[in-house]
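Human: If only I could read backbone structure tokens as easily as an amino acid sequence. Underneath my words sits a plain record pairing an amino acid chain with its backbone structure tokens. Take your time, and here it is.
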Amino acid sequence: MIRSLFSRSAWLHLRIPFSYYLLPVFLFSLAVSPNISPNPLLWTFLIVHLFLYPASNGYNSYFDKDEKSIGGLKNPPKVNLGLYYLSLLFDLITIVLAVVKISITFAILIFIYGLISKAYSHPAVRLKKYPVASWLIVGLFQGLFTFVMCYVGINRFPLENALKPTVLIPGLLSTAQLLGTYPITQVYQHEEDGKRGDHTFSRMLGVRGTFWFVGGVFTLVTAGFIAYFYSFYPGQGYEFIFVAALSPVVLFFLAWFWRVWRDESRANHASTMWLNFISATCLNAFFIYLLLDSTQLTQLF
């Protein structure tokens, strides 16, 4: 048991590097934070990206038992019981650190996120098999909920401080963005999901339908971001910089869509990971720019 807890297989399934793809929500929350200081900033980042997300990845991998490529692992090794207990250990560390380093409120939000993430693949609930429900819940919790959670942690604020338009609107934009991109992360797993009876949102749309849907939502979300920056940062030109920053994502997506339109087998793991990487990198770069261009950063020094 102890040996399997520290097995290479268990640690690979935590997929710690995959947290990079979820970093934009944290950076966006950081960029709109008014009370930045080094310690809560660092600990919120570490708790969420080094422990919370990996714990969720490992737990869901244990119950999914995927045999083909998954997000962050092209050739996933077989899971063992050690992965289950390792993911719970990471959960425990997450809660303890959240209480000790940030606040009880932050720890409660972390705990709620952990419960919802476990429901995604646990056989007793398995949200993954409900296409619309899983799509909405993943978008809400990886978007708005995580945005608010990070805002509470970074600023060490009570929850009520986050329940205002300046936080909720960018949080909702994060959710909208995830609702648009989430189906594309499932597009190469139709065969694997079908074997388990998981009728995911992407399977419901079909391969080509997934691309049409993602393209349409991405267009609407981009318009939402433009309106947000125009309204909340008048005269700064962030809306134009945002569009320019995402242009590599659009170009890659359109080129991939063309290949998939001609041959659906091109909707594969490698292209999905490249799209995720380009999208995360462009968004991370933009939100870092937004942060650096903000007077709030002076509070760190």
Residues 34 and 298 are 11 Å apart (CA to CA). The chain has a mean pLDDT of 89.
